[in-house]
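Schema walk-through. Below, the input block comes first and the output block second. Nothing else is stored per chain. Lengths vary across the set, and this one has 195 residues.
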Amino acid sequence: MRKLVLQMQMSVDGFVGADGDRDWLVWNWGDDNRWDEALKRDFNAHFQSVDTIVLSRKMAEEGYLSHWGNAANRYPQDPFYAFARRIVDVRKVVPSDRLATSRWERTEVRSGNLPKEVGALKAQDGGDIAVFGGAGFASALIADGLVDEFQLYINPAVLGGGTRIFDQAGFGGLRLLGSRAYECGVVVSRYAPAA
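--- output ---
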């Protein structure tokens, strides 16, 4: 059984999205990357175990794939952007009942029941499955018990309000797999469901 890994940036007080237009992320996926070298190296190391990416429909339509495809082309010699090349090369799956076909390279659309579709992906042979999406998508995966590992990129910011991913009722505890603080102020904590 493959592992479904949810990566999510969040604030110290547990929000993944801010109310309003606040700049709170150490790196918001633009050209101004303030992550330190150790965090960049560890982020890329995680992608070596990934051979499938599950994206929310919204994230796919808002340009996630074209953004990282452009980054892979713009920075072909920069070792940090090795993960961008990996995003381009691996299989992508977009679970959606709203899309009939994929408009993106190496990307398939799967319609139907989210737990059934993700469960079928997890049952296949292969490496880890990375999950990227907004709070609603992440919350749905969490509520359905599909996430095997949480990689929480905690930014040095307190938002005081916004969107959370752990607001679904009935979610149990977490078991710490590891945590590391980085010079740039980000702390990456890895958890598995306790059950």
